[in-house]
Fold this sequence. Notes:
Blueprint: H1 2-6, H2 14-33, H3 37-42, H4 44-74, E1 85-89, E2 93-94, E3 98-99, H5 101-113, E4 119-123, H6 134-145, E5 153-156, H7 162-176, E6 182-187, H8 191-200, E7 205-210, H9 217-231, H10 233-250
Parallel strand pairs: 1-4, 1-6, 4-5, 6-7
Antiparallel strand pairs: 2-3
Helix pairs in contact: 2-4, 2-9
Transmembrane segments: 12-31, 51-77, 232-251
Organism: Alloscardovia macacae
Protein name: DUF218 domain-containing protein
Amino acid sequence: MLLRREGFSKANVLSGALGLIIIAFYALAYVRMTSRANAVAQSPLLNSLSILAFSSYLIFGFAFLAFMLYSILYAFIPKRKHYDFIIIHGAGLLGGERVTPLLQRRIEKAVQAWRPGMRIIASGGQGADEKVSEARAIANFLYEHTVIPHDAILLEERSTTTRENLLYSKELGEKLVENPRFLFVTNGYHVFRTSAYARSVGMKGDGLGCTTARYYIPSAFIREFVAVCVRWKWLFIVYYAIIILGLLISYL
């Protein structure tokens, strides 16, 4: 269902890949705790791999749980009633020119938050496999399905990443309003990382998360969690360095 509605991409097969990893982990756990455990314990290589696997399960399991809880609780944080700009974060397009159901939910959430006097920034560049920019696709949807004035819709068509969405939208807003406040709209699972990027570029504002279709939630949370781990990769590098150092010392 995910691939049919949202289109095929590497990110959209992440939930299946994680399923295979979990199966491999339980297979290793079975070997470790059965009659084959002695053979594993007597092999430094197999024993080390086993310890690394269980350590990975521990740290990534707790980190993923914390990430999900924050993403859920963030939705209950009170928001201001007025902002100068509402940023709609782009996403991949269907057929290279139409918004996906996921992106449509972002647009609809932004429209709900919009008030006269605010301006909407449709943010997203054009991918190699897209016929129009994501910003243009968002704007076209707003033109066709909402009553928001055309002059209240701005396009930011340079960005290719979440951070660039915010940075270039901030630059656009600052050309029009002094010390603007922004409301950036994306999916609930995406708000945590987007908020971190907003702080890093000095943006004043808040995040607003929209709901995500149930069929998309597993893949979405996994993809976002991977991106968060990459952003704070040095924490994990230090964690594994300590474990590997401990293993080396234990075998000396």
